[in-house]
Amino acid sequence: MIESRNPAGDESPDFLVVPEHLAPMLPSPKEPPPQPVPAKDSATVVLVRDVEDGSGVEVFLQRRVRSMAFAAGMTVFPGGGVDQRDADASIGWVGPPPAEWARWFSCSEPLARALVCAVVREAFEESGVLLAGTESSVVADTGAYADARAALTSGELSLASFLAESGLVLRADLLRPWANWVTPEEEPRRYDARFFVAALPEGQVADGATTEVESAHWQRPEDAIADAEAGRVGLMPPTWCTLSEISRFSSVAEVLACERRIRRIMPRFVQDGERIVVKLS
Fold first, then answer.
1. Buried (b) or exposed (e) across 77-110, using 16+ Cβ within 10 A?
2. CATH code at 51?
3. What are all long-range contacts of 47-54, with beta carbons under 8 Å and residues at least 24 apart?
4. N or C: which end of the chain has fewer CB within 10 A?
5. How big is the CA angle at 27 (ends 24 and 30), to the nearest 5 degrees?
6. Domain for residue 206, yes or no?
7. How many other CB atoms sit within 10 Å of the CB of residue 250?
8. Tens place of pLDDT for every residue, the chain, 281 residues?
9. 24: helix, coil or strand?
10. Where are the beta strands (DSSP E) in the chain?
């Protein structure tokens, strides 16, 4: 896709122009129903690491299984819906408080707390990356928590219980706010997704050990976009835009230092003559 505006990467662009050969992969422009389905709050994490040779940044991507009800077969970042237990205020916490996240994401403080907890839980469930530790260190080896990961995934265990029983605290200081994407109103399943970025903690390994994905890998953002442009993978507008934004940085440190101006974006597919334009408003 060809995007317009914002070369600095501190805010998402205004629109995307879909190349002709990719148009069949996207939904046809259509009017939203009189009563759109409410969007469920969710959280997505963009895990990043420096390329070993120092030539840039890689992101962790997963291709969803084709049986999924939402984004089937698409290449995505780890993430999922907020569980009501994610709002548990008893969770040990290091880093920016919920009030600060509420300001960044323009939401209530209880929801901000739930979003941060949800993204930490989803990162662990879907990739095995645990953004937790003590007040002075981050977990380096997550192997000891394999049973807890399975129990979190099945819903038998809440994040609050897991952290308390393991003597760990949530490390909100490892996360940065990145974006807020909302599924278009015409879709039958809708999500109000807050995007976070986080560096892969030292010593940890991201994997694809979840039933929701068929494969997982690290890749340079520009290479992932090239695969999509060649029709080898499918990317939704939020993933495409985020990859494009991350590709502008030469290191993880630069990504984490970027101060984002976050706005709520709901893509709209519009026919503009012979082309399809994705308006991001």
1. bbbbebbebbbbeebebbebebeebbebbebebe
2. 3.90.79.10
3. 47/77, 47/78, 47/123, 47/127, 47/129, 47/197, 47/198, 47/199, 47/200, 47/206, 48/197, 48/198, 48/199, 48/200, 48/246, 48/252, 48/255, 49/199, 49/200, 49/218, 49/252, 50/251, 50/252, 51/220
4. C
5. 125
6. yes
7. 14
8. 545 545 445 566 666 666 655 555 555 556 777 888 999 999 999 999 999 998 899 999 999 876 655 656 789 999 999 999 999 999 999 999 999 999 999 999 999 999 999 999 999 999 999 999 999 999 999 999 999 999 999 999 999 999 999 999 999 999 999 999 999 888 888 999 999 999 999 999 999 888 877 889 999 999 999 999 888 888 888 999 899 999 999 999 999 999 999 999 988 777 666 666 777 76
9. helix
10. 2-4, 15-18, 40-50, 57-64, 75-76, 79-81, 93-94, 132-133, 169-171, 175-182, 191-199, 213-219, 264-265, 267-272, 275-280
Say how far apart CA 68 and CA 74 lie, in whole Å. 10
Structural domain for 56, as ranges = 38-216+249-262
Tokens standing for residue 221: 């953002």
Structurally, the chain folds into a number of domains equal to 1
135 in any annotated domain: yes
